[in-house]
Amino acid sequence: MQRTPVTPDLAKNRKVASLFALLVVAMVGLAYASVPLYRMFCQATGFGGTTQRAESAPERTVDRHMTILFDANAAPSLPWTFEPVQRSLIVKVGEENFAYYRATNMADHSITGTAVFNVTPDTAGAYFNKIQCFCFTEQTLKPGQSIELPVSFFVDPAIVDDHGLDKVATITLSYTFYPAGEPSNVSSTENKPSTETNLN
Questions:
Q1: Domain 49-179 falls in which CATH fold?
Q2: Using an 8 Å Cβ cutoff, are 161 and 99 in contact?
Q3: Distance CA 178, CA 195 (A)
Q4: Residue ranges per domain, the chain?
Q5: Which of 96, 146, 164, 189 is the most exposed place for a label (fewest CB within 10 A)?
Q6: 127-178 per-position pLDDT tens digit
């Protein structure tokens, strides 16, 4: 059987096809990696109001106080009431503080929910640190069950060195609960406080 000779044009076409296939594979891989990479970027920079995580509060505090407002929302598909226990707190920068939210399952069956979160203004996200947060785990409530969900946090003293935030005196911490496994259609970096805020 006579083999077709490999002409320069055929070799060139094969090379182009191989490069195109490699490009497709790379694009698919980038698509899968883009979400976790974006989350890592947001967590590192506070972009879009993404808060930070810390093991403990810093050893120093500074002589500056901030008002923290608490916002709570539940997706229409989640038959829960969800609200902050306190409307606001005045905190000292660098000091650990505790706040509580309350969730109640109004349905006649158990439901598992998960929360997304952010802070506003967005630029404060790089300095708002959470030590303990209910958003890190799924929450399952039985019919009629009500629970209080704690969050411990602090405002990083490094905020005083960011002179672009010198006039920021109020930070809003916002949560939205969704049924677990349901696409929220909104990332934590895009979840802004609604105009219908559930506040005590």
A1: Ctag/Cox11 (Pfam 04442) (2.60.370)
A2: no
A3: 18
A4: 1-45, 49-179
A5: 164
A6: 999 998 888 789 999 999 999 999 999 999 999 999 999 999 999 999 999 9
